[in-house]
Amino acid sequence: MAAVYRNYAPLAYTIVSQGFGGFRGFFDPVLRDDAVQNIFAAAFEERARLAYDGIQDYARFLRGLAQNICRQMLDRGRRFARTPETEVAAVPQAEPDAELELIDAEAESVCRKFRESLSDATEKAVLARYFTDGEAEETLAEALSLTRYRLRKVIADVRKKMTRYLKEHGIDGT
Asked: What is d(CA 45, CA 161) in angstroms, rounded to the nearest whole number?
């Protein structure tokens, strides 16, 4: 894997720097490095290794993978881009509804029980700091001594477990 990285890293850096199609590349060196690491992390996953047929040129395969990773990063950037907040007109406060209070209390109870059902300390920390407090991936990964790639896997696992748990208890996120 080290030889593959050394051999194809220049290609990955070229793709993320110069871009492709309408994409003109990442200008920020941190984003470029993050993209290259994501490209090789995806390329070294078992699913990607099995997808490569060994017949076509590996550079072509890696280029397609790199373009998909760059698109995902761009979509993620657009999805979480902050826009200036517009002033919202004051909404008249309705009287507290007993049914809504009961639903909120029940949902809070289910969420608390989910938190208690997690046995892994890392998953509990991710739930509290990422999902509840909204801490950034980079600082959370540093605090938990994880790579950002591994942290993203833990986040995905916690999200999957939480969704399953909530559905089992009659709370649907849609």
From this structure: 22
